[in-house]
Amino acid sequence: MFGIGKKTAVIAAPVEGSVIDITEVNDSVFSQKILGDGFAVEPVTSDITAPCDGKVVLLADTLHAVAVEAGKVQLLIHVGIDTVTLQGHGFISHVKPGMTIRKGETLLSFDAAYLKSQGKASTVMIVVTNLEDIHACCSLSAVDDAKAVASVLGIPHYTLDFRDVFKETVIDYFVEAYASGNTPNPCIACNKYIKFGLLWEKAKQFGANFLATGHYARIAYNQERNIYELLRGTDRHKDQSYVLYQLTQDILPHILFPMADLEKTHTRELAKTFGLPVFDKPESQDICFIPDNDYKRFLRSRIPAAFCTGDFVDAQGNCLGRHQGIPCYTIGQRRGLDLGGPGGPYYVTALDVLHNRVIVGNQESLFSHTVFANQVSWVEGKPAASSFRAQGKIRYAAKEAACMVHVNEERIQVDFDIPQRAVTAGQALVLYDGERVLGGGVII
User: Fold this and answer.
1) Which domains are assigned to the chain?
2) Residue 143: enclosing H or E segment and its boundaries?
3) Helices H, strands E: what count in the chain?
4) Residue 102: which residues within 8 A CB-CB, separation 6 or more?
5) H or E segment and range at residue 145
């Protein structure tokens, strides 16, 4: 026998393929099956058997777990405010079979209140990337908000200064992309280098085993294939799986998305219930380091030479007018061209940085069957095959479309069944198999 809290559990030492009988745990009686590839949380009958050697099982409706190892049962964790990884009705889905869990491990969280309500302790860590605007995302006001949340919840709070790295990997990338005639997605770069890059490395130094963010996406462990899957969020209007396609098997086991199964309105209701002072804080839709959303002003202050005037030309090279600088335009743009005459209306179809020309054409010239992408990343570490069917998404706001994917050594060729409008270099091309994110790359 061994003690669990103030109660005592009498557990018969299991043999291979047997069932542990658990009695008098928190005034309840349970019989638990030990699953070979996961964790049992449902009551089972004694005639059900399963492999048990080396597995972990959670005692239902308690905050305790036992480790089953070579016929011996051991108390693994008692969950309190300073220990983590267990919920009242099961392990968090990201615990991997065979994973070592030690008493006192901590959980890093941007969604601390929700995690704490689920029986998991947490730490708030806010990343400072912007001090130029006091009210911008990841600015001093965000630090104050995070401190206030941590104070309400009674949990630790740390502030990390990532301004230099953020400038190098996100802002400079953003500026250089526009100077090259591309239209970048800075959120994807931030996720790769800051949130799930440097922040995760720092979190581990603080003793964290998991990183929780407010992204609307889901992670599921596929027991049959022994891999972690990245899935689209339940709230399709807020689904952010597109900007997370670079997550791989190395980090997926350590990521939590507590908001994944919640609607945005429910999230705010919970925040209000938890007494968080930011429950009604406006949602930002802007680029975090350009809070006024005037990206032309921002770029002009950094790369003024890129704003040289040049020619608008058609596909035959005929000059139709003068443009105000290539960074002012993106593929598919119609407004602000100020081009009249026969052949219109005109849309931007390509950017010729070398000759400082903006190529324009009619609506039909915007559609493409075939898209190429490089800097390819696969969630599972490799593609399903050298050629396979999937659904492709060419920008965050686009709908997924059926396509055929051909994998080359350093890039992918994606042939869409239906031509896609305004395919734009610099944007991400993300591939799906239904709900599951396969991976993606940067459109070239």
Assistant:
1) 2-77 (no CATH), 106-273 (3.40.50.620), 308-361 (2.30.30.280), 368-443 (2.40.30.10)
2) helix 140-153
3) 8, 26
4) none
5) helix 140-153
Catalytically active residues are 190, 288
Q: How many residues does the chain have?
A: 444
Amino acid at 284: S
**Distance between CA atoms of residues 315 and 325, nearest Å:** 19
Q: Is the pLDDT of residue 201 over 70?
A: yes
Between the CA atoms of 204, 219, 227 and 250, what dihedral angle is there, to the nearest 10 degrees?
-30
Q: How confident is residue 137, by pLDDT bands cut at 50, 70 and 90?
A: low
Question: Is residue 1 packed enough to be buried (19+ CB in 10 Å), middle (13-18) or exposed (0-12)?
Answer: exposed
Task: Kindly report the number of other CB atoms within 10 A of residue 12's CB atom.
Answer: 12
What's the rounded Cα separation, in Å, for the pair 403 and 423? 14
CA distance 432 to 391: 5
Task: Give pLDDT tens digits for 18-65.
Answer: 333 333 222 222 333 333 323 333 333 333 333 333 333 333 323 233
Distance CA 136, CA 193 (A): 20
Cα–Cα distance for residue pair 172/53, rounded to 1 Å: 52
Bridge partners for 160 per DSSP: 127
Strands 387-393 and 411-421: unpaired
Backbone angles phi, psi at 383, to 5 degrees: -75, 160
Query: What is the CA angle 370-376-380, rounded to 5?
Result: 115
As a whole number of angstroms, the distance between CA 229 and CA 220 comes to 5
Q: Give the contacts of 189 (CB within 8 A, at least 6 positions apart).
A: 169, 170, 173, 174
Say how far apart CA 107 and CA 208 lie, in whole Å: 5
Range of weakest confidence among 50-59, 141-150, 408-417:
50-59
Inter-CA distances, 230 with 218, 233, 241, 373, 376, Å: 6, 9, 7, 20, 16
Which tens digit of pLDDT belongs to each residue from 310-336?
Answer: 999 999 999 999 999 999 999 999 999
Report the side by side order of strands in the sheet with 347-352: 319-323, 310-313, 357-361, 347-352
Structure token pair of residue 324: 């105000």
Q: What is the maximum alpha-carbon separation in the chain? A: 89
With 0-12 / 13-18 / 19 or more C-beta atoms within 10 angstroms meaning exposed / middle / buried, residue 3 is exposed
> Quick check: helix, strand or coil at residue 34?
coil
- At 427, is the secondary structure helix, strand, or coil? coil
- Using alpha carbons, list the distances in angstroms from residue 27 to 4, 12, 17, 24: 12, 18, 27, 5
Neighbours of 229 (CB within 10 A): 18
